[in-house]
Design goal:
heterodimer; A: mainly beta; 6-stranded mixed β-sheet; 5-stranded antiparallel β-sheet; 11 strands; B: 114 residues; mainly beta; 7-stranded mixed β-sheet
Chain lengths: 113, 114
Amino acid sequence: QKEVEQDPGPLSVPEGAIVSLNCTYSNSAFQYFMWYRQYSRKGPELLMYTYSSGNKEDGRFTAQVDKSSKYISLFIRDSQPSDSATYLCAMITAGAGSYQLTFGKGTKLSVIP
Amino acid sequence: DAMVIQNPRYQVTQFGKPVTLSCSQTLNHNVMYWYQQKSSQAPKLLFHYYDKDFNNEADTPDNFQSRRPNTSFCFLDIRSPGLGDAAMYLCATSSGQIRTDTQYFGPGTRLTVL
C-alpha cells in the first residue's frame, strides 16, 4: 500500500462548479500537509499549507485535514478554466530532520468553459 | 522575481552522453532538492542537500550525481543517460524549519534522450 493515495482522474467539471480533490494516507507520522498546483510542463506551485486538523481558507480554495481519518481535501469554489491543472497533495513527517515531501500521484482537473 | 531558477528549460542529449542540469535560488534556503518527474507521475525525490550535507535516496541510481558548490547553486549530473532517464527534472528549496517549511519548486528542465 502506498503511503499517499490520490485518484489521478482526469476530472472534468463545468466552469463555476465546486471541485473536491482528495488524498488519503496511511502514515500517522505525517503532520504537515500541502497542496501543489502544476500546470502542464511547469514546476509545482504551492497552493495551501496546513499542519492542523480543520479547515484553512484562501480565496476560492479551502484545504481540509482530518487526521483521525487520515484524509485531506482541497475544495475549489467557482472553478475557472485557469484552474485546469494537475493538483498534487504532499505531506511531511514531524520527525526532526524530516524535510522530505511524500507526494500523491496528482489529480488532473479540467474546467470546461 | 524568480526564486528558483533552472537552466536550461529544455535539454536534449544523446544516449550515454553526460549532461548537467543547473539550479539556482535567491531565497538563501538551506535545503535543495532534486526530483525526477515522469509523465502523469508524482515527483520522485532523487537526493537533497541540507547545507553541504548530501542525502541520497536509497533507490537513486548511481548514474545520478549532484554537486552543491555554494548555497545558491546545485547541479544534477547524469553520467550516462539512458532512454529511461527522459523526464522532467525539478529543483526545489526549503528553509529547513519544519513548522514553517515548505518547498518551492523551479520551473523544471525537460530532458530528452535520443
